[in-house]
Amino acid sequence: MPNQLTYRDVFRFVPNLIGYTRVLLTGAAAVSMYYNCPTSMFLSYALSELLDAADGHYARKLGQCSKFGEVLDMVTDRCTTTILLTYLAELYNSRPLALLFNLITVLDVSSHYMQMYSQLITGKTNHKQMDTDAHWILRAYYTDRRVLFAFCFGNEAFFLLLYVNKFITSPWALYFSIALTLLAFPLFLIKNMINVIQLYESAKDLAKLDAATLNNKNKSSSSAAAVSRKKL
């Protein structure tokens, strides 16, 4: 009989070790931001985002997919983006931009939380599992890893380039970085449109579940009342 896994074994899964590395890199990026070390920040943040693709790959390859790993990955993603957007709001010193960065943060966190909650409460194994009747954009986004990676990478690259642009001193390097920022902008825009769709569709799924639950409850109450009247 094979040895039974313990929670400590799950903590030591390779994809989860990658996840812990991402957490440390995110911490290093945050410290680098606030202590004006843009090179260190860029390298830490970029490496953390690249490892985001690695953890899922090794989880599937090694048969080490876990609920803990899924939540660790999502929480790290949301925290990493939130830290950068919070700093960008301060770095650009503009109230309209600060408001925009805050709204993007709210949309990012709320849409992913509601997506995960609605999927789990309706019996899905993870927040990326899509039914055939799910919105076609969400199906394309979550079921094709290449599409998922492209939009997530483009979204984070856009934010990271907004940070880098503030510290580049060479005019030619700045022109090149701005060009990359413009190339990443459509991916950022579409990614956040997907977040809006995700938020609405998740809310709709939860409301459908509530309606079905209440209808069944009312039906049961009506049946019980009818039986009581017959007895009388």
String of helices and strands? HHHHHHHH
Beta strand % = under 5%
Low-confidence stretches: none
Main sheet overview: none
Share in helix: over 70%
Number of helices: 8
- Apparent shape: globular
The count of strands amounts to 0
Distance between the termini: 62 Å
Query: Structural class of the secondary elements?
Result: mainly alpha
Describe this structure in words.
The chain is mostly helical. Helices cover 83% and strands 0% of the residues. The chain has 8 helices and no strands. It has helices at residues 7-11, 14-34, 38-61, 67-91, 95-121, 136-143, 145-165, 171-231. Helix 2 (14-34) packs parallel to helix 4 (67-91) and helix 4 runs antiparallel to helix 5 (95-121). It is globular, with a radius of gyration of 22 Å. The N and C termini lie far apart (62 Å). The mean pLDDT is 90.
